[in-house]
Specification:
By secondary structure, the chain is α/β, with parallel strands linked by helices. The protein has helices spanning about 15-25, 60-65, 75-80, 120-130, 145-150, 165, 185-190, 195-210, and strands at about 5-10, 40, 50, 70-75, 85-90, 95-105, 115, 135-140, 155-160, 170-180, 180-185. The structure holds phosphoribosyl ATP and magnesium ion.
Length: about 210
């Protein structure tokens, strides 16, 4: 079937910030993901559906074609090890920085640095580029706790206002990447459904440039 398009998206800040962009394409979801228990949202466009998945699962749904398109943070895409999706457009939403952070007033670390993060691949690449061997400790959340409890010397996490770091006595010491959300597209869908997808991407680019 090449006459409909499914877009994978996570609820929360990405969904909220994507709504005005989708409205610019005249796509308006008919359910609110914070209210409904449905994971497939219909829209005012009979040929466009949104599927609501975990942020880290968006590239998987798109790579396997369970969704034709998706909206995912660059942080998630940098960690994704799948076989590839197209990444045609930076939506410039849900912006933040991925930073290395350390306890305020901490001393230089002698010996092997221990870094806690959920971004293991990006962190490994970052230190490898600097020729530095570090021990990476994988966590799934609340990274800010790790230095406080002595689990790690430093952390790699996302920072927006910096309030979360500050509240835990941490300061950013290096920016690893500027993060924003991207449109991703399944490779087969880009070919098979190009008559639907190409104009959407073109219009989206125009909407992004206006905002
Ligand atoms: O929450 P859940 O486990 O379901 O998934 P998720 O955490 O991946 O989803 P969500 O909605 O929290 O984040 C989705 C995407 O939003 C991320 O993949 C990023 O691309 C983007 N984004 C933008 C952010 C932030 N800004 C952000 N500030 N994601 C998380 N944060 C967190 C950060 O990790 C830290 O805990 O907010 C806290 C810091 O905020 P400040 O303002 O205190 O600095
Ligand atoms: Mg979260």
């Amino acid at each position: 079937m090449s006459d409909n398009v499914t877009i994978a998206i996570s609820k929360g800040r990405i969904f909220t910030e994507a709504l005005p962009l989708l409205a610019g394409l005249n796509i308006r979801p008919e359910q609110d993901p914070d209210v409904t228990r449905k994971l497939i949202l219909t829209t005012n466009q009979p040929d466009v559906k949104l599927i609501v998945v975990r942020a880290t699962d968006v590239p998987t749904y798109v790579e396997y074609g369970a969704a034709d398109m998706g909206i995912a943070g660059k942080d998630v895409l940098m960690e994704y090890t799948g076989n590839g999706v197209y990444e045609p457009l930076d939506l410039q939403i849900a912006r933040c920085k991925m930073v290395l952070a350390a306890p305020k007033n901490s001393k230089e670390i002698n010996g092997r640095l221990r870094v806690a993060t959920k971004y293991v691949i990006t962190t490994r690449n970052y230190f490898a580029d600097q020729g530095r061997q570090v021990e990476i400790i994988k966590l799934y959340g609340s990274m800010e706790l790790a230095p406080v409890l002595g689990l790690a010397d430093q952390i790699v996490d996302l920072m927006d206002t910096g309030n979360t770091l500050r509240a835990n006595g941490l300061v950013p010491i290096a920016t690893i990447a500027e993060i924003s959300s991207r449109i991703i597209v399944n490779k087969a869908s880009m070919k098979m459904k190009h008559e639907l997808i190409k104009p959407m991407l073109k219009k989206l680019a125009a909407v992004v440039n206006k905002t």
